[in-house]
Amino acid sequence: MDKLVSSIYRATEFIESNLSRKIALDEIADACYISKYHLHRAMSAAARRPLMDYVRARRLASSLDMLLHSNYPILHIAQEYGFEYEQSYIRAFVSEYGMTPSKFRKGCFTVNLTEKINIAEFIQLDNGIVFETGFVLKPAFYLVGSRHYFSPETNWHEHTANRTGNEFFYHVKDKIPNALHPDTYIGLTRWVEGDAYSNSYLPSVEVSAATQVPVGMSGERVGTHKYAVFQYIGDIHPNQLTYQHLSMIWSYINEEWLPNSGYVRADSFFFESIDVSVANDHYCEVKLYVPIAAPA
């Protein structure tokens, strides 16, 4: 099992074993041998909500059986699941389910449960894990960077995207004025159907619309789109990321997810977004944006 996946598994099991008491982020991190900063980010991605919100939601979900099938007072149930005070339990319950525990107990209500994280549901790779994070509508935005042309085959054998991306990010991007998010790398790929050697790759940063494109660089406006977003979290630094690392993700997206999603590609491009400020030698996050639309 990959180190990152193993850490998520250990954290999940530790949480499940301690639903009857209040636990802290430091305790969870200590139990799975990972920094609490990176644990929080990885577990929040896995749970699709902040880690400690997930912990609270699991305690609440686990309390429902006792709430429905016993005559214990609310205070007793609260303390059984790590809430020191009755009012703390009630506030958390209302926040999660939109009603008080007493109302839930007396009525016949359907509530959405936060289930235990299931590692088997994630796409596991040699150096990380992939999460389907959902859909976003992103308004038009502007990029400036250094455009390159190469085929997927060349990229596979020569790591061209990695090489040109590192060159841009560490030696070129600071020449671009008005970068909106200077620590976030955008790699935009456009392709021409049937002509692999016309594929373009734009290592870039997002800029304001009025930014003047420096000599020798390229600017591009990306129109408003709905995107399916996939997040890769790996145990390498993003400057080591190559097409080999991401090829399994694209195989999954193109061969499994897209044909069964009810969507089609909306345009002949995609891009990856990497916030380098959260990375270290053993951690990276990459978000892959695929423009989609309903079939015509």
From TrEMBL:
Q: Where is the HTH araC/xylS-type domain?
A: 9-107
**Top-level taxon in the UniProt lineage:** Bacteria
* Presence of the UniProt keyword Transcription regulation in the record: yes
Q: Which Pfam families does the entry link to?
A: GyrI-like (PF06445), HTH_18 (PF12833)
UniProt keyword list = DNA-binding, Transcription, Transcription regulation
Recall the GO molecular function terms of this protein's record: DNA-binding transcription factor activity; sequence-specific DNA binding
- Specify whether Transferase is a keyword of the entry: no
Stored PANTHER family: RIGHT ORIGIN-BINDING PROTEIN
**Protein name, as recorded:** HTH araC/xylS-type domain-containing protein
Q: What is the lineage of its organism?
A: Bacteria, Bacillati, Bacillota, Bacilli, Bacillales
